[in-house]
Amino acid sequence: MSPKYTKALLAFVILLIVTIPFGLEYYTSQPSFCGSCHIMKKYYATWEKSKHRNIACVECHYAPGQQHTLTAKFKGLSQLFSYLATSGTEVRKKTRIDDSSCSTSNCHPLDEKFNSKKIKFTDKVSYVHKTHFDKTIEGQKLHCSTCHQHRSSSTHFEVPQENCFLCHFKNTGFNEGRGKCVLCHEMTDKPLQKQFENGGGPAGVKPITHKSLKEAGVLCTSCHIELIRGNGDIKEENCLDCHEAGEDLAKAQDKKLMHSAHVAKGEIDCHNCHTPIVHKETEDILEIVRSQCALCHPDHHLYQKALLTGEAVEGVASTPGLMSRVKTNCLACHTKEDTDKKGQKILRGSPEACVACHTKEHNKMLAEWKTTIAKELNFAKESEAKAAQMIARSKGKKQGDEIAEANKALAKGRHFLQIIEYGHGVHNRKYSIMLIDEALNNFDEIIDNFEDE
Questions:
Q1: 120 & 217 share domain
Q2: Where would you find this protein in the cell (predicted)?
Q3: Residues 171 and 234 in one domain
Q4: How far apart are CA 26 and CA 20, in angstroms?
């Protein structure tokens, strides 16, 4: 081989050595190369249909200036190993898009125009970026990908409304704080009554509008309580997809830690942890109210619970119900199907429930307890009436502070009797008798102090 030929061959080899890496990098940087991977085909397909189809994958998936670094090369190798190691069609780990990839001067620079621009999110809702940058949940740091996510096979990425609902309605009262309707919806002057449509309606009569209802102090829940359903609870079982049970799981309710470790770092989506909150109309607007007793009866069965728990009150020691130790609840005793005075179906307590757990002799226990408590309650009410009568007679004869103290003692005793009467003392016989005794102590003290007046 001639020296000239050797030099030419050597030059060609050197050229190949120099150009092949650049050629490989160019080839592997093309979207078509990304789409050739079996786990990327559906993502590539949605990219081709998206507004970003003229922007190469590496322009977004690597931060500006990162594409040619060792970090990027190792990241590419890890993706190659994932490709070779799996025969599935899913990407195992969520991709993380750096905010700087979105906010370059050629894309969406974070200037005042971008921050304050009103974007039409839905037909009724506009969106402003700056508002959301300024107000975040404890521990969170919002990223572009916090809201803009790949969620379905039909779009490359989108802003799921479920994410909006979770942030706005989680741990907020209806139409309060970040859940206020006017943050997203415009308060209109459109008449709500049919007769006022198209400028009609009785002369001199003002139509009812959302604005007039707000001015009158009418609660939004009067008409829209069904629009928000769910509470966004943590699905702790999902933690086990990444963590082991034990110490890690015990931290699941630490909101600041969870948000900083997962949301701020862009590792997972909100609904990997939270159950969804639904915000939309439903045809049956009454069922949600009918099925949630506490909406109309916020203190329903409060006295029954007070008796069963038997918490310590002034003058009475803590005395939980006999069956609280084995965590017996209402359904253990209320087994008899019946109807109330309004014809509504209810479950009543029955002696048969006592027998089912205990012995046949317990069949009479419920009736005996009812009789005993009723007798004691009637006796206490006689003392209550006498104490109230004496206070009334002493007006003008006793000092004002003495009468005030007596009324305070009377109210305390009456409250104890109300717990027993309205909560049904059989729920905790021993505690009921103790409450009656303390009520009698209050009434007797009033009678002794005011008897001579």
A1: yes
A2: Cell envelope
A3: yes
A4: 10
Please give the C-alpha separations between residue 77 and each of 41, 44, 423, in angstroms, as whole numbers. 19, 19, 69
Q: Positive or negative, the Cα torsion across 299, 302, 303, 304?
A: positive
Look-up: residue for tokens 């942890």? 273
Contact 138, 259 (CB under 8 A): yes
Please give the full DSSP string across 156-202, using - where no structure is assigned.
S-B--HHHHHHHHHTT--TT-GGG-GGGTS-------SGGGGGG-S-
What is the span of the domain harbouring residue 134? Answer: 112-195+206-288
* Measured distance CA(429)–CA(370) in Å, rounded: 9
pLDDT at residue number 432:
96
Question: Does one domain contain both 46 and 166?
Answer: no
At which residue do the structure tokens 């009678």 appear?
A: 447
Q: How confident is the model at residue 92 (pLDDT cuts 50, 70, 90)?
A: low
- The predicted-structure confidence for 93-113, as pLDDT tens digits, reads as follows 667 788 888 888 888 888 888
Asked if 280 and 146 sit in the same domain, the reply is: yes
Alpha helices in 292-364 (DSSP H): 302-309, 330-333, 351-357
Contact 52, 78 (CB under 8 A): no
Do 322 and 444 have their domain in common? yes
What is the number of alpha carbons within 13 Å of residue 209 lying toward its C-beta? 14
Decide: 56 and 227 in contact? Cβ < 8 Å: no
Task: Tell me the C-alpha distance between 192 and 46, whole Å.
Answer: 43
Distance of CA 425 to the CA centre of its chain: 36
In this predicted structure, the answer to whether residue 316 has a pLDDT above a threshold of 90 is: yes
Same domain, 16 and 158: no
CATH value at residue 350: 1.20.140.10
Residue 314 sits at φ, ψ, to 5 deg, of -55, 115
Are 220 and 362 in the same domain?
no
Q: How many domains does the chain have?
A: 3
How does pLDDT run across 419-450, given as a tens digit for each residue? 999 999 999 999 999 999 999 999 999 999 88
Residue 277 maps to a domain: yes
